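Q: Structure tokens for this one, please.
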Amino acid sequence: MAEKFTLHLKRPEYRRIEKLCRKTGDVHTRLWCQIILLAARGQKVAKIASLLVCSEDTVRRRIRAYQSEGMAALRPKPKTGRPPKVTEAYKQQLLEAVESDPRKLGKNFSNWSTGKLAQYLASKTGISVHPTTVMRLLHASGWRFRRPVRVVASPDPRYKAKRGYLKRLKRQARRGEIHLYFADEFDIELLPTISGRWMPIGRQYKVNTPGRNERRYGFGAVNYVTGRLIWLLSEHKDNVAFRKLLGLIKRHHRGDDKPVVIVVDNYSAHKAKKVREWLKKHRRQLRLYFLPTYSPNLNPIERLWRHFRRTVTDNYFFETMVALLEATKAFFLELAQNPKQVLSIVTGHA
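A: Here is the predicted structure, written as tokens:
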């Protein structure tokens, strides 16, 4: 037979519980009020538990508590025990400290660890906590431990002017007045590049390395508007290969009178005498624009080389240069067939 508690509530008492149930913001108080109200309507323990999705023991305890304590049984009891160490003032000082430069605070180190933060704040506030507590507080405030990104500062005195002119070239390309390419070279090494990958806890994968490193080179150019990729591989990183790349670009625009502008860095092969002579012969259609010195951030094709390393050489050992070059060719042949993907890589927009 289903268990039933008999509760006889006077009308004012029933209304007080109803009002508390409607107005409380505490989920426990609302549940306890609902238990008492249902019990007062004659509902059995199992039925109340089913309706409120709680255990029958909870229903019994609340009814017994109300029978002995009255309305006081419907409100949470004040918490007892030791007050928390960490105060709001401590949290604020933690956030101020983690944003600060340790050396400007007189410390002989450059980066905060949770242990150093805990020690520093203990000396400032008198509150001593474990480094794990500091980590939890930082996570709760939206902080994460990540690698910073290097900022490249070009020493070129005309950096701003050149960057401004580059923006003008991009606008011209988008309006269809010129063909704009970004060109560069990259190294293809038998020595694998290393990046993060998934590993089981407690086990570290190892990547083989060659007894003697070998190197080849790639040359590439990407059309800023269409995503057209033009590339070649070479045994040497010299002006001969660069002139071949220029020739491939010119051949692609054969019969087109629209000017072709190729943005390059200040690598010596780009300024070689034979390159200048070649450009003189084709100056009506094709010219180079040199980036400010030491400004790889202005050449979006750098992102393509990073994508190549992630896809082909990261964490993988090719036993022969032949095998590596075959994989490299397959990568670029496939990529060149998808200009939209090339644009998404070099612009950073999928």
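A few notes: The first strand starts at residue 179 and ends at 189. The mean pLDDT is 90.
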